[in-house]
Protein 1
Amino acid sequence: TGRKICRIGYDLSSEIEYLLTKGQPAKYALHPTLDRHVELLRRILLESGHSFLEVLPRPVDAPYICCLTHDVDFFGIRRHRLDGTLAGFLWRSTVGSLVQACGGRKRWKQVFKNWKACLSLPAVYAGLKRDFWNLFEEPHTKKNRQFGSPH
């Protein structure tokens, strides 16, 4: 039928999914595993003789490129229930804030704001108050209109 099939000996999709969702094990941190998978695909496509369009990681004649990104570490405190993330938040926003304010490294206004956030947690978990860690606009529901959406 004119089709070419290339067998590579492992499930490339699962390997890439693992790297993108779970990350690379620390002992292989110095190995560019994802880049090697991309290079394998590039080589297979080139050897196949089929035409394809490749978007280069940087412009052809540029020595480097700058890409601005935003890293989202936590998407809503409501997703954390009695875990290390919640415990860390509670410690930093109460005791940690107090210690920083006494040492002159934090303003008292921020300390009170952090304490207010801690005291609001039961209402956040009950859905009565906006999740202050959810920085993305939630669907417009009656609850969001009543209590205010994040944006």
Protein 2
Amino acid sequence: MSNVSVKPGNPNATHDISLFDGKDTWGIRLDGGFDAVQQLPSDTSTVVFSNAGSKYGDGETGMSHIEQRDWSGGRGQEDFVDDNSRYFDAQNMWTLQPGKVFPSLQWKIADGVRIGNSHLPGNMKWQSLISATRYLSNTFTAGSAYAADKAYMWIRRRGSPGTLTFKLHSDTAGDPGAVLQTVTKTISDVEDVVSLFQVFDWAGTESLTDANVYHVSIYGAAGDSSTNHWEIGVDDSGSAAQYSSDGTTWTAADYTLYYRVVTADDAQKWHMFILEDVLFAVSQPDSGSSVLMEWDESTDTWSEVTIDNGDALSGTVKSVAISGKLAHMARGTANTIWTLQVDGTDRNGQTDTTAGNTADVIHAFYDPVDGPQIWRGENDNDYVSRASTAAFNTDLEFGDDIELEEDVLNIADYNDQIWVRTTSKLYSIKNDRASKLNVGLEVVPEPDDYSPMIAKDYYLYVGWSFSVERLYGGTLDDMGVW
């Protein structure tokens, strides 16, 4: 660069700073002049600077760093200096192996629980939506008649691309035909550059006909480039996709798109449990009866369980407790406890006939004095009680009610005692008496019918407000993240 004149004491300097590499000179003007240059203390860092581990890394006091070589302590720590094996948050990273950090496992969604069509096999490669492959489509055949409510695709953003457009089509001679639904996304909808299993949710639903062929298509903006574009997850072992530069003329591709087309979301949660080495899941819908499903490891699918002997499952399951070879299910105060038995290939059911054997929450616990017990929480009258375990086809016999002040949300065992979480309180049960732990949980009462609580290692973790509390002995710490 010519005409660069910078030196101390020069009243007519052309620039504030000059850089010279032995051949060329560059002039730099500071935004705000020399007042823009400030000397500030550096922020602390966890970067590793050498192979020798130490508390402090690279030297003098103003430039010291606390190195981090291990993340196995997990998330939720506010102050790093408290434990340098932990961290605040990491967007689902796998950190359990000391000294290593890995991306989390890819989501996979099993078949059999929900009506729809999908292709989500496993390992995935990326295809850019530019030039000859600006448009991609994929064919599928509806496995049944259903009302399609939304679709999902694996996408990844590169730079700042233009609008991403998803469409659902009918079929015309093997190519995408009439447009049935359209959804667009921009970088304001996808702010991060990590890959996302992105939902494309159109207004209303689209009725798909059993055995009819349909297409999903997706394309980027005409102005996208190798620097700014969208990428789509594909399975390079398939061949159900097509590509196009203009969305009109399509060519067969040597891959299949990752996609999912499904019905509307069901308002329910699932209780998963293992009984006799078989994985089960029972639904808890907002209304109607629960559905009991069984996992088939050989086909990676769920199928509804048929009860071979005894009573069929009805009502809404709210909680499950495993005791020996039985799974007891609480069905609220309108239905008595229902029990599942696995006997070889048979699935047998038992409904307790004792009128008072109802529960909103149920929990199995091995009492150090009385042996295996079944604890229940009942919310019509706000109490807990316990029964010794019983054989299949034998009703549980619950003892005296231990009255509480409000609804029971959860029951757990910790430190050889039963702990009960209610709407705004935490109790330990000692000698069949409730002892309240006064820690101020009533400041923010839990509004739902369930609050997470689990014992792990030496701690009892309790969900509260937008945070997690950790109990150790008589000390309760707030863990975050808020």
Protein 3
Amino acid sequence: MTQSFVAGSVATVTGPVPRVSASLAWPDHWGDIKARWNVGRMDHTVDPGLYALGTPDDQSAVLVTANYKMSFNRLRESLPGRNAWILVLDTDGVNVWCAAGKGSFGTRELARRLDACGLGRIVAHRKLILPQLSAPGIEAHQVKHITGFRVVYGPVQAADLPVFIDAGFKATPEMRRKTFTAWERMVLIPVELVSALKWGVVLSVAFFLAAGFLISGNFLSGALNYGFFAAAALMAAIIAGAVVTPLLLPWLPGRAFALKGAVTGFMAAGILVFMRSGSHGFGRFESIAWLFLVPALSASLAMNFTGASTYTSLSGVRKEMRVAVPLEILAGIIGICFWIRACFIA
């Protein structure tokens, strides 16, 4: 596959290696922006293999990353004016942290990729710099045993790599700490929001049509009265779960993300019911329906952020899912039943 960011090649004993620059071009930035908004997200990839940053030689550092292009971009742009080798693993277009958790950024893939590119013949040293967040998928002692290369874990943030390398591959305590600031939470929102809006539109249309058919009398009148409010309630649930919850994450009660999402969802439902009260045809059954449905949907969406959070562990997420998912499904069923009942008596 032709890769626009490749600019020539570097000759090695195993053949030419594609050369890349630390400077990102507009297509690189545009691709990252689209991936943030879940547009072509799974196609935003780099061919696995070895790349040359600048003009590296047999003494240059070897840095390992995933073939998610945003990960690749963050790595190379953090090293302006440097010469290094970049080894890209095949992680199916998934970022380092998630790929390590899933096992695609793992010991076996690392060993296979080292053998495939013949790195042992290209460099004189036997040191690999891996992202700290790849550690869950890597067995360093096995890498050493299988390949002869020693694993050194770099800092959490690629931006700290120059200081890390200049300090003799030593990280400060700050470099080892994974933060989850408001900005770091905010940049995760678009991809979840776009995904949620896709099924939100489908559900809104379904509720709109169902309201028209279920309510006796004029189809359009029933659809407009009940269907539009249903669409508004669904959008409120999406905003509560995919936007408000991650922004307010540290301040929402409880440890479980589902609980945090349910809290914002219940608040949104309360506001909706208050605004809807006094409207023609509004009754307690419709009120109860959305007090169940909105928190259930918001809680489900909030759980999508567990994989990106520093607050969770794999065992904790599994435990939360065993408890929360059945409750969300039950709440959803109850809410739909009350909504259908409200339509029949309207």
